[in-house]
Specification:
The chain is of the alpha+beta class. Helices cover about 40% and strands about 30% of the residues. Strand 5 and strand 6 form a beta hairpin. Helix 4 crosses helix 5 and helix 4 packs across helix 6. The longest helix is centred in the middle third of the chain and has 27 residues. The relative contact order is 0.13.
């Protein structure tokens, strides 16, 4: 655990290695995975606003995170303005990803959301090999469901369909995507 939801922090964080999972618990007790951050991503920007954190941050496996106290940030920015520009870019990039994920959750079906999220994870955390792109963070069906706003059962059904089409291979908590560009979702059947 790096930060807890609801805490008012005084620190901005930079991921220098590994992955960090940002999640929020809704008032009805459901956990929603907001983001899976990797090397070069920042979080904790609510500390700049002196507001409670809307998410908890937790390392996924081994992760290295640099803590930058907000009071020190002013000095860093003053002496190295390029750092301020880069931090703004990183925060804006995450805001863009979050907005896109919200839009997708509102208008796309589950197979489309799962396929897009797997492609994003392959791009952000993937390692290319002879058999395709291996997503470099452990990923359970429940965790993927929390990322796309779906039940584990629905994610399981979607992954079985993608596996049957040869688009995804799963091994315990590891996902391999032979060709991420071919990972186009199959439309859900329309029920009458």
């Amino acid at each position: 655990m790096i930060t807890r939801q609801g805490d008012i922090g005084e620190t901005l964080y930079l991921v220098t290695a590994g992955a960090v999972r940002l999640a929020s618990v809704t008032p009805d007790g459901r956990e929603v995975v907001v983001a899976l951050l990797g090397t070069g991503d920042v979080f904790g920007e609510c500390a700049l606003l002196e507001r409670p954190s809307p998410v908890e941050a937790r390392a996924v496996g081994q992760a290295d995170v640099v803590a930058i106290p907000v009071p020190l940030l002013g000095e860093i920015v003053e002496h190295r303005p390029a750092i301020a520009e880069q931090l703004l870019r990183l925060a804006a990039s995450r805001l863009h990803r979050t907005s896109r994920a919200l839009e997708q959750a509102l208008v796309e079906d589950v197979p489309t959301r799962v396929s897009r999220r797997l492609r994003d994870l392959a791009e952000e955390h993937g390692t290319c090999g002879d058999n395709g792109v291996t997503i470099g963070v452990p990923l359970t069906q429940e965790e993927l469901g929390r990322m796309v706003g779906a039940s584990r059962e629905t994610v399981n059904r979607t992954l079985r369909g993608l596996t049957a089409r040869g688009l995804v291979r799963t091994y315990e908590h590891t996902v391999v995507i032979p060709d991420p560009t071919a990972l186009e979702p199959e439309p859900e059947p329309v029920s009458s």
